[in-house]
Design goal:
By secondary structure, this protein is mainly beta. Helix content is 11%, strand content 28%. The mean pLDDT is 97.
Length: 202
């Protein structure tokens, strides 16, 4: 069994979506002074590797805590779009309602180098086809499937398809069968949350 980490590490260098406040990681207690080490973390729910709930973009959409844990575990299906989004690729991907579809753009290689420039956004016809297939989640190795006014978010979240943003290492899964685990923080009544996403190669 091989486990691949799909999550972006969180530290003071993790890129923040333009317009959002920068993360704060503060060392508030030390072994020398207090007898223990402790840190205070401050960042938005849509930072680093995280899951979007429908309520993020849909007025009366479901919140993340309304989903059972099994919603965040599924069969990984990698769709390679490095040469462009072709909706016909989804016909061959064998996507089911138990799938977590991972869109491989390779944009994560720019994580610390102009990450928010030059991303490949998902076209509407591709998103509508995904929405009809109704996978558990759709994840991408980039910061967003689209730009304002966020039509793609609304198509997928409106179809109750959760989104995972800021994944990495999808190149290690190409052509392999895997199970994906992307469990969000157990936050109540929230629009999204960080998750530790991993793929277990079978």
């Amino acid at each position: 069994m091989e486990i691949i980490d799909l999550s972006v590490p969180i530290d003071d260098k993790t890129p923040v979506y333009p317009g959002d406040p920068k993360q704060e990681i503060t060392h508030i207690s030390s072994v020398e002074k207090d007898g223990w080490n402790e840190h205070r973390l401050t960042f938005n729910t849509h930072f680093s590797t995280h899951i979007d709930a429908p309520w993020h973009m849909i007025k009366d959409g479901k919140k993340l805590s309304e989903y059972p844990l099994e919603r965040f575990i599924g069969d990984g299906v990698v769709v390679d779009v490095r040469k462009g989004f072709d909706a016909k690729r989804l016909d061959d991907a064998k996507i089911t309602t138990n799938s977590i579809v991972l869109i491989f753009t390779d944009h994560c290689k720019n994580l610390h180098n102009n990450y928010f420039e030059g991303a490949k956004f998902m076209p509407p016809e591709f998103a509508w086809k995904l929405a009809k297939l109704k996978p558990k989640m759709v994840g991408m190795d980039t910061f967003s499937p689209d730009a304002p006014p966020f039509e793609i978010h609304k198509i997928l979240l409106g179809a109750d398809v959760l989104l995972i943003e800021n994944l990495m290492n999808l190149d290690k899964l190409a052509g392999k069968k895997c199970k994906v685990f992307a469990l969000p923080l157990a936050l109540r009544n929230i629009d999204g949350a960080q998750c530790r996403a991993v793929a277990v190669i079978e």
